[in-house]
TrEMBL record:
This is NAD-dependent epimerase/dehydratase family protein. SUPFAM superfamilies: NAD(P)-binding Rossmann-fold domains (SSF51735). Residues 9-233 form the NAD-dependent epimerase/dehydratase domain. Pfam families: Epimerase (PF01370).
Length: 315
């Protein structure tokens, strides 16, 4: 598909992930329209969602809209989180079926939708067991998004592509402590500690847990690949955007001490829970679909994220 033939609607364009997508689209010269409440469209409202798609007639819809936040947020606000996200999913698919059934919907699916017990996430197992209770509201809504997409494919032929996505980090995340994502929160902590010449920095847990991280601009580049080649074999099934490797919190902290040249003392607050020891995503399917894709090295991603936080903290 050539650039001139693409017209995208990016839902959640003002969010952390949405901004990483729109940056790539702008760079590629792709026509797109962003939507979110701040931009005047509440996707829980079926009429507003239908009006948007009727007007824009997109070829692609990148669905980065969600009511989501930290573990604390999705637990405290569990009822609102599931209600809002389910409403958005239903509004979206009903509107697509009615107004632009030819459009391809691209859904990031956060890896908290994987079963709680898994330590290596394999696509074929992603519905084999309940999600962890701490992410019940959000994880369940992502599974329902996939189920909704399947049903609208069955009845209306709507095509969707689901990208199972690890925790992301990078520029443009919210600075609200209840919304900031884990690795970004750690980078922000180091930026503040260095700027304030803090002699100590407290990190929760023992540092042992291993997690996989995706640099958000890499997600934007992958979405662009998918938009151009939606028929690549394999993409008809949910696909991990995976490297099959993670870093322990301790390794990340060492990396940040080096990046920030932080000389203060690290205090490990082992009274705080670690969670599961290891969570990484199997990349066998990913490598077949995107054999040439190069992920950004984590040092470079963290350095760019640090520059972002340095630019927004008023010291
Ligand atoms: N961040 C990660 O680490 C990560 C990892 C894997 C997958 N993902 C997935 O990526 C997607 C986006 O996450 P994010 O981290 O970018 O979240 P975010 O920063 O909170 O952004 C959410 C976006 O959704 C919009 N939105 C929320 N409620 C809306 C509503 N009722 N109507 C219209 N727009 C609404 C928000 O804008 P307004 O407030 O202006 O409405 C914002 O633009 C989610 O599906 C998430 O699961 C994220």
């Amino acid at each position: 598909m050539v650039v001139a033939d693409i017209k995208a609607v990016v839902l959640g364009a003002t969010g952390f992930v949405g901004q990483s997508v729109t940056q790539v689209l702008r760079r590629q010269g792709v026509a797109y329209v962003g939507a979110s409440r701040a931009l005047g469209v509440d996707l829980r409202d079926p009429a507003a969602t239908a009006a948007l798609l009727r007007r824009e007639q997109p070829t692609h819809i990148v669905n980065c809209a969600a009511n989501v936040g930290s573990l604390n947020y999705v637990t405290e606000q569990a009822g609102t989180v599931i209600a809002d996200n389910v409403r958005m999913a239903l509004s979206l698919y009903e509107a697509v079926a009615r107004e632009c059934p030819q459009a391809i919907v691209i859904n990031p699916i956060a890896n908290c939708a994987y079963p709680a017990e898994a330590d290596v996430f394999r696509e074929e197992d992603w519905l084999e067991g309940p999600v962890h209770r701490s992410v019940l509201s959000y994880g369940a809504s992502r599974r329902l998004l996939w189920n909704t997409a399947e049903c609208f494919a069955m009845q209306h032929g709507v095509k969707s592509i689901h990208l199972l996505t690890p925790n992301m980090y990078g520029p443009y995340d919210s600075t609200d402590p209840n919304k900031t994502h884990a690795l970004n929160a750690l980078v922000a902590k180091f930026v503040k500690a260095r700027l304030a010449c803090q002699p100590q920095l407290v990190v929760w847990g023992t540092g042992a847990p291993i997690r996989e991280w995706l640099y958000a601009p890499d997600f934007g580049r992958l979405v662009w690949e998918v938009m151009q080649h939606p028929d690549r074999p394999g993409l008809e099934q949910p696909t991990n955007l995976a490297q099959n490797s993670g870093l322990s919190v301790r390794e990340l902290v060492t990396l940040m001490q080096r990046t920030f040249n932080y000389q203060g003392q690290i205090i490990w607050d082992a009274a705080k829970p670690d969670g599961a020891l290891k969570k990484v995503m199997n990349n066998a399917r990913f490598r077949c679909i995107f054999p040439a894709f190069q992920f950004t090295p984590i040092d470079d991603g963290i350095a760019a994220t640090a520059r972002y936080y340095e630019s927004i903290y008023p010291y």
